[in-house]
Specification:
Largest sheet: 5 strands, mixed
Structural class: alpha+beta
Strand order of the largest sheet: 5-6-1-7-8
Radius of gyration: 26 Å
Oligomer: single chain
Distance between the termini: 69 Å
Strand content: 25-35%
Order of helices and strands: EHEEHHEHEEHEHEHHHHHEHEEHEEEEEE
Helix content: 25-40%
CATH topology of one domain: Dna Ligase, domain 1
DNA sequence: TCTGGGGTCCTAGGACCC
DNA sequence: TCTGGGGTCCTAGGACCC
């Protein structure tokens, strides 16, 4: 088994495409007030910047780094190139993410699986990755199982290769922290720590029954095996999606229910559009709500038959919100669809099922402007999203949001000559009553 | 203004059916 | 009158991964 991991992938793509960033700290991730680091280049890691760290902290540790929000199209394209390279080497390739994959070497075109053969093959593969990607390096691990290959690829990062000889697996693992085992995260590690288990060697001494008692059925059996380097998971080349979801964290907490409904509607539209694009539909709609204090709630509802309709997903999502007390403020909203079924479009030709997105509710926004707000006028404001005027009254304008991202508040920057306001355009969807000038 | 977004899998309780 | 057990589906929450 071979595991390949592209080094600091997102940051490396940025440095490849923008020569001015080469040799400099680069941080890719959320750049908003509540963003986190997705990838830090090795130059940034010197300053202690790490994945999953808040961007705020990364900025304080390394203020001179380039902070980028990411160009996923470029990452996807480069990933495709690498995966193509792997698939040319073996028909059995399992991508784990854009920057990682397992390759079944037993199915590769190799005379044998001797250490020298496999080592030469892996070195050649690494060289080809550099060539095909315009300079991106990969760390590779090879071993007798997925687990060992993955552990091995981590041992000599970046730009390294480690081949673990058969028979040496358990000796390799014994001194390691239990966290090397996939599935042992912070919570499990803490549970183990409390009973005095820190290393794989210590884990080995626990009976299977005790392990199950400690960590539950699935995790107990799983850890018992992996502690002994027993892992016969096959490479699975094609996996079917089980859910599709969209979520967003807002720079300031949401308090306006109408706005929350509008945001859920937009997310539902996005999710349903993605379902249609991939020819899927699902029966269960789930909303996710993270409150100001980070407690996370979910509510779901299952339909009798699968849907890919924006209107259905949106209505269900809004209805599910009704259940929840959001008075303390909401930092995250999300919509997901699961229970997916292949769904063959009835009319393969003829009218493409270009479904109309569910219209977004309007939101009342107080403003401090003497301007006349004509319905249909575009409202562009980075802090409050983009939309158009739906109606207006004294000191208040009703905005139908297209892309609202934060809750409405006083619209400070709306001045009479505000460049963010553009001339009238016809409202859509047309509502005769609302297009009367105010 | 600590704490992303897209996922997967597991657990546990309740409803319901046989 | 009191008490079954297995299986499936649904819901909510949590751990984990990259």
């Amino acid at each position: 088994m071979l595991h390949l991991d592209l080094d600091a992938f997102f940051a490396a793509v940025e440095q490849r495409d923008k020569p001015s960033l080469r040799g400099k700290p680069v941080v890719v991730g959320g750049v908003g007030g509540r963003g986190v680091v997705s990838t830090a280049s090795y130059e940034a890691r010197v300053y202690g910047v790490r994945s999953a760290m808040s961007t705020r902290e990364a900025r304080s540790r390394c203020p001179h780094a380039a902070f980028l929000s990411g160009r996923f199209h470029a990452y996807r394209e480069t990933s495709r190139t690498v995966m193509g390279l792997l698939r040319a080497a073996s028909p059995l390739v399992e991508p784990l993410s854009l920057d990682e994959a397992f390759v079944d070497l037993a199915r590769a075109d190799l005379p044998d699986l001797a250490l020298e053969t496999v080592t030469a093959f892996a070195e050649d593969l690494r060289a080809r990755v550099v060539e095909a990607t315009g300079g991106l390096t990969a760390s590779v691990g090879v071993g007798t199982s997925k687990f060992i290959a993955k552990v091995a690829s981590d041992l000599d990062k970046p730009d390294g290769l480690v081949v673990v000889a058969p028979g040496t697996e358990r000796d390799l693992l014994r001194p390691m922290d239990v966290r090397v085992i996939p599935g042992v995260g912070p919570a499990t590690a803490e549970r183990l720590r409390r009973v005095g288990i820190h290393t794989v060697a210590e884990l080995e001494s626990v009976s299977e029954d005790e392990m199950v008692r400690l960590l539950g059925n699935a995790n107990g059996h799983w850890l018992y095996s992996l502690a002994r380097a027993e892992d016969d998971r096959p490479v699975v080349a094609e996996r079917e999606a089980k859910s599709v979801s969209v979520e967003g964290t807002y720079d300031t907490d949401l308090t306006d229910r109408r706005l929350m409904e509008g945001l859920l509607t937009r997310q539902a539209n996005d999710v349903a559009a993605r379902l249609r694009k991939s020819g899927l539909s699902g029966r269960t709609v789930t909303i996710k709500v993270r409150l100001h204090d980070f407690t996370t709630l979910s509510r779901s509802s299952t339909l009798a038959s699968p849907t890919d309709s924006s209107a259905t997903v949106a209505r269900l999502a809004r209805a599910l919100l009704t259940d929840l007390d959001t008075s303390g403020g909401v930092r995250l909203l999300g919509v997901g669809v699961s229970g997916l079924a292949d769904w063959v479009q009835e009319d393969l030709f003829g009218e493409t099922a270009e479904e109309e997105a569910e219209p977004l509710p309007e939101v009342e926004v107080p403003h401090h402007s003497r301007r006349t707000w004509a319905p249909g006028m575009d409202v562009e404001h980075t802090e409050h999203g983009r939309g158009w005027v739906w109606g207006s009254g004294r000191g208040v304008v009703t905005v139908r949001f297209e892309t609202a991202v934060t809750p409405p508040g006083p619209v400070r920057s709306f001045k009479d000559d505000d460049p963010l306001l553009t001339p009238w355009r016809p409202p859509e969807p047309a509502d005769p009553a609302a297009s009367e000038p105010a």
